[in-house]
Structures are given as C-alpha cells and as structure tokens.
Amino acid sequence: MGSQWSKDSVYKRAVRDGYRARSAYKLIDINERYNVIRTTDNVLDLGAAPGSWLQVLKSMTEGHLCGVDLNPIVHLDNVTTITGDFTDPAVQTKIREVMPVVNVVICDAAPHLSGSKSFDQVRVMALNEEALDLAVSLLNQGGNMVMKSFQGTDFNDLLDLVKQKFYFVRVIRSVATRKGSTECYIIAKNFIGAANDDRKPHES
C-alpha cells in the first residue's frame, strides 16, 4: 500500500476491523448493493492476496472458498488457496480439482502498472478478458461475477463481452475507491451459459 494512503480513514478502519486490506469494504459495498454472493455459494477469488476479500467472504457464505494469487496468501481457516497465475492452464486445472462447482467468481486482480497509460490499459483489458474466459468455463448457469477494471480505451468492448455472457451487467465505483482513480467494478449476474451446458443452474 502506497505511503500516501497509509493513514487514510478507510485504511484505519480496515486495521481496526481486522481486515488485511482496505479493499474489504469494496466487496462489502458491492454485495450490499447487488446481492452477488449468497449464503451457500462456492466462490472463486482471483487475485486474492493478501486475503481481505476472502475474509469478507467467510462472513457471507458457508460455501467452499478458493483464493488464487501469484503471491502466497496467509492461511485462513476453511479456505483453499492456490499460489500461481490464474491464466496458467496448470493452475486452472488445480482450480477445477478443488472447485468442481463454482457459483461466483470475483476478481480484484490488476497487473503491475508501468506508468504508461496506454500500455497499462491494454494489460488491464487482457487480464480482464482472461478472468472472464475462466469464469465462463467454470460458472454454473445463473452464476455471478464481480471484476475490477479501469475505465479507458477498449473498456466498452470488454463490457460488451460481459453482456454477451450475463443477463444483468452494471458498472459501479465503490465507496471505498480512492478519489481520482479510474477503477471500477463490473457486476455481472445470472450467467447465461451455453445451450449444451449440463452444469446445474445457480439457485436463487
């Protein structure tokens, strides 16, 4: 966390409440507004380190939780963690082994930024598309997705891809997002699935 944010009110609140990062409140805000995660959902968290969203998920659902990140995630009871790149086919195989049923995919991942706005936006969009592709391959019909992105070049093209896969799509800024940031979250509910998809629909 950058030093300029180390003493802001949201960070202080996270420390007080025992969360590993301020981003915990982003997921709380999203779920309060859109009810993406329900009490029996199995949830896959991409870009999960340091684990603040997993901490929040433990209070939202009794389902199976799995977090994936390039960096190790400090142990949380009753949470499966995988250290690796979620775009790697070998890591995706591991995910399928531990998560045979996935109701919700959440992704707070972002690439390390270079400072070149145009280059970084391309990398963000590529990572978003990888996360979307993985979610589509894993989600039960009717499942949900939450994905961090950044508004800019090609963002509307990404949004169109999401709308092809989900019946309900919204773009929001979280109340915990820092002022001046182009960060946003894509809320996608009710995965359409494929005509030949034999996975069980998501329970309402």
Features:
single chain; 7-stranded mixed sheet; Rossmann fold; about 200 residues; alpha/beta; disordered N terminus
How would you characterize the overall build of this protein?
- The protein is an alpha/beta fold and 204 residues long.
- The chain is 35% helix and 24% strand.
- It has 6 helices and 7 strands.
- It has helices spanning 9-17, 24-34, 52-60, 89-98, 117-138, 155-165; strands at residues 43-46, 65-69, 79-83, 102-107, 139-150, 166-172, 183-191.
- Helix 2 packs parallel to helix 3 (52-60).
- Residues 1-6 have low confidence and may be disordered.
Which helices and strands, and how do they pair?
Blueprint: H1 9-17, H2 24-34, E1 43-46, H3 52-60, E2 65-69, E3 79-83, H4 89-98, E4 102-107, H5 117-138, E5 139-150, H6 155-165, E6 166-172, E7 183-191
Parallel strand pairs: 1-2, 1-4, 2-3, 4-5
Antiparallel strand pairs: 5-7, 6-7
Helix pairs in contact: 2-3, 5-6
Summed up:
The protein is of the alpha/beta class and 204 residues long. 35% of the residues lie in helices and 24% in strands.
Number of helices: 6
User: What Rg, in angstroms, do the CA atoms define?
Assistant: 16 Å
Structural class: alpha/beta
Strand order of the largest sheet: 3-2-1-4-5-7-6
CATH superfamily: Vaccinia Virus protein VP39
**Arithmetic mean pLDDT:** 88
